Amino acid sequence: MDNREEVREFLTSRRAKITPSRAGLPAGSRRRVPGLRRSEVAALADVSVEYYAKLERGNLAGVSPAVLEAVARALQLDDAERAHLLHLAQAADGSDALTRPRRRATRQWSPHRSLQWTLDAITAGPAFVRNGRMDLLAANDLARAFYRDLYDGGRTTPNLARFNFLDPASRRFYPDWDTFADTCVAILRTEAGRNPHDKDLHDLVGELSTRSEEFRTRWGAHNVRHHGTGTKRFRHPVVGELTLAFEGLEMAAEPGLTLTIYTAEPGSPSEEALRLLASWSATDAAGPEREGGSVGRAGVRE
To answer: Where do runs of H (alpha helix) occur along 212-300?
Structure first.
């Protein structure tokens, strides 16, 4: 992934999203571009048009933090977009050259046994560790039952992005599929800015771009986001509809990894569904065969 192209497309896409009225500027007439003109962004950032044009051509090497902040303000970037711009500038400046050699092969990671103990101690909701490429690296039993289709997919390391865009089961599992797809790509795009020389990420983006038009369209939008907390809806093949809250916790001992925990509102049907899923998982693991069908609310397979 060429950094100059990434910078150019990111800045251009952000400029196109800001209307003159939103920036406090007169709309004028005969406007030929969506959003702001380069000259308007330059004026808002208090830099010359020539200098901003150089930035938008992809040249962020040596740009001062003050100028980056001014550009971020002019383009009204949110926290995730500001961080992404900073990461792009760091990559362009070569400041990560020693720690992130070009197209670095990702080191094999396995959870420390105390981390697996911690995950296993969480019994009321799915809990798992993922990286910025959306690989599921460690999980408790309930997460494995929750993401049954991923773990049944045959890959050594299940990947949420591949599931989202390449597995038809994802459209059943995610009632709000478009929202999940948008979030998934935004997380990958954020990781691409943070870790631009990750070979496995390059390969994943290439695979998804080749095989999924839905992914290609979203990847081209250059949207990024922080994904820390919220509520999601699921349709599990065994226990049906669930509405779950989640918290994503950055792991201080392993930068770049996130511990995610899903929970249900106490006393809700979703909490009952998670209990049934835990019961089904324990029964399923104890038996040599899996039967078809689903588990009803009374815990009886239908």
So the answer is: 213-219, 269-286
